[in-house]
User: What shape does this take?
Amino acid sequence: MSFRTGFVRDLSAPNGYSALVLNADYRPLSYYPLSLWSWQDAIKAAYLNRVDVVYEYDRLIRSPSISIRAPSVVALRTYVRPVDLAAFTRFNLFLRDEFTCQYCGGRGELTFDHVVPRARGGKTEWSNVVAACATCNLRKGAKTLEEAEMSLGRLPRQPTSEELRNAGRRFPPNYLHETWLDFLYWDVELES
Ligand SMILES: [Zn+2]
Assistant: This one.
């Protein structure tokens, strides 16, 4: 799995005029996936006074009935408190582990591995499942860490939403509109 960390500064809105959605503190509601609304939803929310329009696209959207400037960045008027603990999903687990095998640090084909094998009573939960490359997964098989003579880079645990948000900042989407960049602080050191 590879992620492009480069992005396109493009004013022509090939993203279909999506609006970046910020919380009331002007931080993105979500980094990964990036919180985006369709221009229809953004305009509707602005009309209902649920959001402030921070930036607009330069180009007008024209149709037989309307000609409008779509918001490119909107901010919620009411702060939405992020859920403190992240949901246990496959995606969030990969994100917690930064798409990296927790045994060898590789970024090859990723699978999930039960640290304590299921056959030995290991549960499918944050503290017992890690991202593992196919090679390490095969090598570990149904053995314990001791039996397989393998070790983990760090102990798995349930991340907070804040930690997942921070992890998400490392994986920017392929397209970012210029007006979004003020609100996004991607870490690009992974590229090196
Ligand atoms: Zn590995």
